[in-house]
Predict the 3D structure of the following.
Amino acid sequence: MGKVGTRKRGKTSQYYFQLVSVDGTRKWKTGSGYRTKAEAQAATKQKTVLLSVKNGTFTVYDILMQQFFMR
């Protein structure tokens, strides 16, 4: 998985992680407004699971599912 983390922004916390598209481009996904770091980390886990299940244009893994199953 690309970089994943949380940071404090004023009185609220923010999560961030990288999405990798099929053609190899990367995009940052962020969310903020969480009162604690634990809330931001829980939201990160929930969002990454939803994106990996959705399996749309982007995936949150460093290798693509096609590459994983070709091994």
